[in-house]
Design brief:
Helix content is 47%, strand content 6%. With 178 residues, the chain is mainly α. The chain has a domain at 8-107 and 129-150. Bound molecules: zinc ion.
Length: 178
Amino acid sequence: MSSEAQKKRHDGQSKLTEKQWAACIDYFDSSCCYCGKSGKLTKDHLQPLKQKGELEIANVVPACASCNSSKKDNQWLSWFQKQEFYTKDKAKLIQKWITFSLSIKELFEEEPSESEMVISKEVTKQIAPDTTAAIFWLKNRKPNEWRDKKETELSGSVDVNARSQEIKDRIKGRLKDG
Ligand SMILES: [Zn+2]
């Protein structure tokens, strides 16, 4: 096992990987998410690490060194609003990143192994339309990095039907007895 794989296994999927960071930079068009400057970008934590923020995809945005050090441990929005380069649109984009990054998190996860494929619970996923659009945008922009993950249909309808029939029968039986 490579040291990278070992690290990954050790940290689990919650920590920021190189690919996630690349996606993050791409989302913000390779520029500082606050002032818009391009160039060397640092990993800025929306919620500062000192305040239990994590080095995790939804908590990380690209910022130039100047914004990053100016922001320090301040709450990002209140700091941002005081800057002359503040715009509502940029703040919105950052807010969207938080939800968007969480929705794409699973795209980075490795294929589950055979034994982990046995899933019997019903899963309902709700993804906002603009998030889906953004995923396609990323896929189209960097088709090699954004592989299509086959969505496995996890339908619990058979079990649910059988279960509700079972409950119905039980109620019927009880009514008869009473
Ligand atoms: Zn900046």
